Records
---
Amino acid sequence: MDLLEAIKERHSVRSYTDKKIEGEVLNELYQIINQCNKDSGLNIQLCLNEPRAFSGLMARFRKFNNVKNYIALVGEKSDSLDEKCGYYGEKIVLKSQQLGLNTCWVGMTFSKRKSKKAIMLNSDEKLLMVIAIGYGKTNGVLRKVRPIEKLCNIKEFSESVPEWFVNGMKAVQLAPSAMNQQKYTFELDGDIINTNSGSGSNTKIDLGIAKYHFEIGAGIK
C-alpha cells in the first residue's frame, strides 16, 4: 500500500480490539515517530496500554471504546506548533494505515488530567491533542467531504489547471479535519501554492494535515 492508497483506505475508528501493537509493527511505528521528531523538533510520544485517558464520560459519549493506545502530539509552545503537529501527526497516521493499524484524531474527548502519568512534558512544551491507535473493530466508513471547488480558488477544472494541482486537491479532499469542516483553502498562483487555515478551533492543525495530503497527491512526496 503506497501513501495515496493509505489516504483512500484510512477512516476514523473509535472502537478497538484487545490485540496488542507489537513486533515489527511496533518497531516501525517507533521508527516513524522518531524520524518525525528528528525532522520537526517535536516531542511526539507513543503511549501503550494506557486506558485512563479515554475512560471518562466524554469519551463514552463520543463512542470511544477500548482505546488503550494513543500518540501524544507534544512540542514547544510556538505559533507554528499546531500546523507542525497536524503535518507530522498525519505522516504517522498514514504510516500506521500502511502497517494495518487504525487511528482517530482526538481533540477534546480524551482526559489530559488522566494522561499526565503517561505523557512527559517539559516546562516549555504543550500537549496539543492525541491520536487513538490500534486494531479497530471495523475499518471505519467514508465520511462526507467538501467539493474540491470549495477548497481552492479554481472554480472550473480544465486543461489550463496543472494535473499535479488537481491531484493534490483530490488528496486534500480526503484529509481529516475537526468536525469534518475543512475550513482551509489552497490558492494556485502560477506555480506557487498559497494556503489559508480559516478561523476556528484546530484549523491550523487541519491545515497541516491537508498540506501533507496535498504533497502526496501532487507527487511532491
---
Amino acid sequence: MSWIKEVEMEEAEAAGNEELALIYRELIEKRGKIANILKVHSLNQKAMQGHLDLYMSIMFARTGITRPESEMIATVVSQANSCEYCKNHHGESLNRYWKDGDKVQALTNGYKNMGLSEREISILDYAVKLTSSPGQMVEDDVEKLRNIGLDDQAILNVALITSYFCFVNRVAMGLGVEYSEEELKGYKV
C-alpha cells in the first residue's frame, strides 16, 4: 500500500491500540472504508486524526463552495502536482456529481476550454496559481474571486482546499501511497 509500515485494523485491535482502532471504526462507519492516504498515518494516530478533522472541515462544511467545486479543486491541484492517487480519488468523487467520466477526464487535461462557468474557471485559476506559483500570489488574486461573488469565507475555503491538497499530494507521493480501482470506489458521500 505504501513504502512504510501501516497498521491494519486487526493489528490495532490485537495490540490493544484503542485510539487507532476507534479511528478506523469511525472511518468505516462514516465513510464506508479506510482510504490508503489515511492508513499511511497509522503510526501517528494524532496526525491521522488531525488530518481527518482538517479534511472533513474543509471538504464537507458549508462555506460557500459547493461539494463539486471542492472536488474540482482537489482534482486540478492534484493534477498540477502530478499526484495520481489524489487525482484519481477526487476525480472519482467528482464523477459522483457529474456522472460523466469524459468530463472529469477533460478537467484533468485542461479545464479552461471545457465549458465551465466563469466562477468555476476563476476558482480553478486561483487554485492552480497558488499550487504552482505561491510566491506570486497578490491581493488582486483574491479580488478576482470577490468579483465573481465569493465572500471571504468561501475564498478562505478555496485557499484551504488548495493548500490541503498540496500537503496531502506530497504525503501520498513521498510515501508511495498506492490506489487500485477497488480502493477508489465504495466511499460514502
---
Amino acid sequence: MKDLLIRKATVNDIGKINLIHQGEEGPWADLDMCAAWVTRRLERDFFILVAEFDGKPAGHGEWIVSDELIGKTFFLGQLQIAKAYQRLGIGKAMLKAGEEEALKRGCASVTTIPEPDTTSNIFYEKCGYTVSRRFITAETEVCGNAKPETMTVIDEIPESVIGAMRFLIGLSQSASRHIWEVISRRPEGNNRTVKCAAFPDGSYAAISWFGSNQTAYADAFGNVPADAALGHCFSLADAFGVKQICFEADQQHKELLDHYVIQDIQETHVEMIKKL
C-alpha cells in the first residue's frame, strides 16, 4: 500500500500511539500512562512500531525477545489498529515487519496471546499462526489454600530466571520476559504494588495489585511442579494479608491444581505461534 508507512517508534510518537488507542481499554488510552510505558519500553529494548496511513496514525505494535522452553521467541504483546483503518491490511503488514525483526534478533518463532472473545484468532490464523497452548484463568480465596512456608521476601525476582526457569503461574502474556518487565520494570507513576519472595526449592513467586490488596494477581517461576508454584503464591499472598488471588496456568497443569479449593476456573486465553 503506497499510503502506508511502518517505522520504529520514538518518544515523539507517544501522542500518535495514544490516538490509536482511543476508545480502547488499557494504559495506552491514557496519555500520561502511554507516555510512561512507551518511554520505559523503548529503554528496555522493546521493538515498537507505528503505522501511518496517508500520514495519519493507524497502528501500534510491541514485541520483545523472550527465552522460553520452545527456544528464543519474539513475543508480540500489543498490536492495535485504529478503528478507522481496520481491514486495510495494516495489521498483516505490521506482523510481517515484526517477523523480519525477529529473524534479525535470532528468534526461531513469534508468539502472541490474542484477546479472548474476539475474532483475533482468525486474523492470526490467516497470517500463518497456529494455537500452541491453552490457558485457564482462576480466582480463589487465599484462606484455606495457604500453608506456612519458609520464604525470603525480596525486592524483585532476578532477571536471570528468564530462560533458566519455567514460567508456571501468570501466563496471560505467556512470555516470561514480558511478564518480568511488567512486574519488575514498570514505569514511574504506575500504582501497581508488587511483593516477591524466593523459596528454598529455588523457585520464585510474585503477587501484585492496584489500590486495595483484597485481590492480587499471582506469578511464579521455577523448575517445580505447577501445584508447588501455586502454593508459593498462596503463601506469599497470605503473608501480606491478601484475601484473594487471580492466576493463570497452562491447561495441561489443571489436574495438578485440583486439590486446591478454587472458586472460579475457566478456559480463557490461547497462545499462538508462527515458526520462522
---
Amino acid sequence: MKRTIFFLSDRTGITAEALGETLLTQFPGVDFVRTSVPFLTSPDKAMAVLARIQAAERNDGAPPIVFSTLTDPQSQAVIASGTQFVFDLFGTWIEPLEKALGTQSSHTAGQMHGISDVNLYLRRVDALNFTLDHDDGLRPRDMHEADVILIGVSRSGKTPTCLYMAMHYHLKAANYPLDADELRFDTLPPCLRGVRDKLYGLSIDAEHLSRIRHGRRPNSRYASVEQCRTEVAGAQSLFRAVGIPYIDTTSISIEEIATTIQQHFAFARPYR
C-alpha cells in the first residue's frame, strides 16, 4: 500500500514533520511518499500547494494525507476545501487551550522555532560550537569545560548523540574515542581522569559495529568482526572497572540515547 503525505507549515515545517512522522510510525505496512512544504505564508501559496495535492490524488487514485501546522485560518481553509484528509495539528488544540486558559491565542507563526529568548539561543549556539570543537577527542585539555563527555569505541554513536544534546538540551557535549591501544588496560586515558564524573559510555553489538565500519573502511582490520569484538569487550571491561555508566546503542535511536543520558545526569531541559 502506498500513500502520499504532505507536511504543510508557514515556518520551517519541523513541528508538522515531527508530529506527523510520530503518527505514521504506527502504520509500518504502508509505503509513504513524503513532501514537505515550509513557509506557506499566504492563501495564494496555499492554492498552489492545493493544486499539487490534487495532482497527487489523481496520480495515486487516493487522496493524500495532509499534516498541517498553518496558523493562518484563510490558508488552512484553502487546503481543507480541496482535499479530504487534512489533519490540522495546530487548530485542533488551540480552541480547547483558549478555553482552558481563558484567553485568545496570538495565531502567530514561528513561535516555536523563532528566537524568543536571545540568551537561550546564544547558549545553544555556544553549546554547538563547543561540541564541534571537541569532537573525537579534539582539544582534550578543555574537557573540564564540558557538561558531559561520551566515550566509546569508534562508530558507536558518540558524535551524533553529542550534536543532538547540544542542539536540543544546550549541553556542551564532548566525546573521546577509545582506541585499541588504550583498551589494553582497564584504566582511563590521562586526559579523562580528572573528569570522571562527566563520563558516560556508549557500547554497541560487535557484529553491528562491523557492518557500520565496513561502510567506512571496507575489508579492513578496523572493520573486521574480530577487531570489533575485541574493542567492544575492552570498552565494556573498562566501563565496569572504573564504574562508568553506559548504554548499548545497537537498536535505540539517538533521541533515546540522549534522553537516557540527560535523565542520568538530571540535566535541566530547556523549553524554548
